[in-house]
C-alpha cells in the first residue's frame, strides 16, 4: 500500500484528487492539508511514502526546504504539481532533486498522477517531458534591469554600490529588489536570490 499525503489548496480540488487516488487498491490517502504551514509537520508526523504538493499552495521559497525534508525523512518522496505558468521557477529544482522529487504539470490527467505516485513509491525517476520543455522554453519573469540588480545583489553588493554601478538611485534599486522578491514568491532578498539562481533567472 502506498501511503500518500496531499498538500493541496482548495478543499474541492483536494477532495477530488483524494477520491481519484483512493479508487485504486494500492494507494491510501493518510493525510490531507490545505495550509502550507502544515505541510512540513504532516510529513514529519505521518512519514508518507509520497506527498503530493500543489505549487500554488506553497511559496517558491519553501520548495527547496520541502525537497530537503523528504530526503531527511528517508523513503518519503514528493510529487509537485506545477502550473504551466510557473514552470520556469522549478527548472533548477527538477535537476537538483530528481531522485526524490517528481514534477508534474498540474493539468496532467489523473492516470498520469497515479502512475507518477506508483513510480515514485518504487524509487523510480519520474520525468514530465512537457513540463521540462515548458521550463526550458519559458522566459524568466524578471526584466533585464531586475536581472542586473539581482545579479549584483547575489555578488554581495550593498544597495548603494548596486545603484552606483548601474547609474540609478538607491530607491530604484530597492524597488527592483522588492519586485523581484514578490515575483519569486520569497520572503527575503536572500531567498529571492536563491530561487532565481535555481530557476536559472540569473
CATH superfamily of the largest domain: Response regulator
**The biggest beta sheet, please?**
5 strands, parallel
Tell me how many strands there are: 5
Supply the CATH class of the largest domain. Answer: Alpha Beta
Shape: elongated
Q: What is the domain tally?
A: 2
Strand order of the largest sheet: 2-1-3-4-5
Helical region count?
Answer: 10
| Secondary-structure element pattern, one letter each | EHEHEHEHEHHHHHH
CATH architecture of the largest domain: 3-Layer(aba) Sandwich
- In the predicted model, the low-confidence regions spanning at least 5 consecutive residues are none
Q: What can you tell me about this protein's structure?
A:
α7 packs across α8. The chain is built from ten helices and five strands, in the order βαβαβαβαβαααααα. The chain starts with a strand and ends with a helix. β1, α1 (11-22) and β2 form a beta-alpha-beta unit. The longest helix is centred in the C-terminal third of the chain and has 15 residues, at 170-184. The protein has helices spanning 11-22, 36-46, 63-73, 91-96, 110-121, 129-137, 144-154, 159-166, 170-184, 189-199, and strands at 2-7, 27-33, 50-54, 77-82, 101-105. It has a five-stranded parallel sheet with strand order 2-1-3-4-5, with helices on both faces. It is α/β, with parallel strands linked by helices and 202 residues long. The radius of gyration is 18 Å and the shape is elongated. It folds into two domains: 2-137, 3-Layer(aba) Sandwich (Rossmann fold), CATH 3.40.50.2300; 144-199, Winged helix-like DNA-binding domain superfamily/Winged helix DNA-binding domain (Arc Repressor Mutant, subunit A), CATH 1.10.10.10.
Amino acid at each position: 500500500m502506498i501511503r500518500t499525503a496531499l498538500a493541496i489548496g482548495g478543499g474541492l480540488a483536494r477532495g477530488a484528487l483524494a477520491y481519484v487516488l483512493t479508487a485504486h487498491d494500492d494507494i491510501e490517502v493518510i493525510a490531507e492539508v490545505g495550509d502550507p504551514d502544515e505541510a512540513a509537520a504532516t510529513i514529519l508526523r505521518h512519514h508518507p511514502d509520497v506527498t503530493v504538493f500543489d505549487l500554488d499552495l506553497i511559496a517558491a521559497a519553501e520548495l527547496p526546504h520541502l525537497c530537503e525534508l523528504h530526503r531527511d525523512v528517508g523513503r518519503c518522496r514528493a510529487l509537485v504539481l506545477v502550473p504551466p505558468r510557473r514552470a520556469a521557477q522549478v527548472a533548477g529544482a527538477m535537476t537538483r532533486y530528481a531522485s526524490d522529487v517528481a514534477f508534474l504539470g498540474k493539468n496532467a490527467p489523473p492516470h498520469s498522477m497515479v502512475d507518477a505516485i506508483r513510480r515514485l513509491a518504487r524509487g523510480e525517476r519520474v520525468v514530465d517531458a512537457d513540463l521540462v520543455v515548458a521550463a526550458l522554453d519559458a522566459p524568466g519573469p524578471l526584466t533585464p534591469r531586475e536581472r542586473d540588480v539581482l545579479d549584483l545583489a547575489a555578488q554581495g553588493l550593498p544597495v548603494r554600490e548596486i545603484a552606483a554601478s548601474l547609474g540609478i538611485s538607491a530607491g530604484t534599486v530597492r524597488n527592483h529588489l522588492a519586485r523581484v522578491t514578490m515575483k519569486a514568491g520569497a520572503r527575503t532578498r536572500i531567498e529571492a536570490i536563491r530561487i532565481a539562481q535555481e530557476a536559472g533567472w540569473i
